[in-house]
Write a structure and sequence with these properties.
The chain is of the alpha/beta class. The chain has six helices and seven strands; from the N terminus they run βααβββαβαβαβα. α4 runs parallel beside α5. The mean pLDDT is 93.
Length: 186
């Protein structure tokens, strides 16, 4: 079964306490994310890449401005063989998909890439559970393929909203799993 992992927005501004939009406790899931990424046959890592005057800053404080240190991914989450879209995916194990909105499917390269890859299963994890992870997970469910959400490798800002997201996700056909189960099965 061809599987693609989705590492959602694990960027310095979100996963470390000094980050502009720190998700409390996110640094604690970095070892799991690093292991999932290293063991993934292919991982697509979404990354906010905002301009200085991005419209999203009317909702959220400045964060993940393109080409700044705080926009980067922690080194432990990077795979040696990687490319940043729109590079051709052949021969790499990590694709970094930049986005300027909450929804990774706003990048016009994602849907054609998924069609080309022909995965049968997607494994999703990262931050923020009830926001960007939700967009990724529900967008992937629209492909009609199996979508698994790694519950111990996500972090939320609002635990009630995260629990609701999990309920909605499973009701829509998604599967909840853990990092241990994913690593055992992969």
């Amino acid at each position: 079964m061809k599987t693609v992992f989705f590492d959602v927005d694990t960027q310095i501004d979100f996963v470390y306490p000094a980050g502009a939009l720190y998700v409390p406790g996110a640094e604690q899931i970095l070892p799991l994310i690093a292991e999932l990424n290293q063991r993934a046959p292919l991982v697509i890592s979404t990354m906010d890449a905002h301009s200085e005057d991005d419209p999203e800053f009317k909702i959220y404080p400045h964060h993940c401005v393109a080409e700044t240190a705080s926009q980067r991914k922690p080194a432990s989450t990077l795979v040696t063989s990687r490319a940043t879209l729109p590079a051709a995916p052949d021969g790499v194990r990590q694709l970094i998909l930049e986005k300027q909105t909450l929804d990774c499917f706003s990048n016009p390269h994602l849907r054609p890439l998924l069609a080309k890859l022909g995965a049968e299963r997607y494994v999703v994890y990262g931050v923020v559970t009830e926001i960007c992870v939700r967009f990724a997970a529900f967008g992937l469910l629209e492909t009609g393929r199996r979508v698994e959400l790694v519950t111990d490798a996500v972090k939320a800002l609002d635990e009630d909203a995260a629990r609701k997201m999990f309920r909605d996700f499973t009701a829509a056909g998604g599967v909840l799993t853990t990092a241990a189960e994913t690593l055992r099965d992969n």
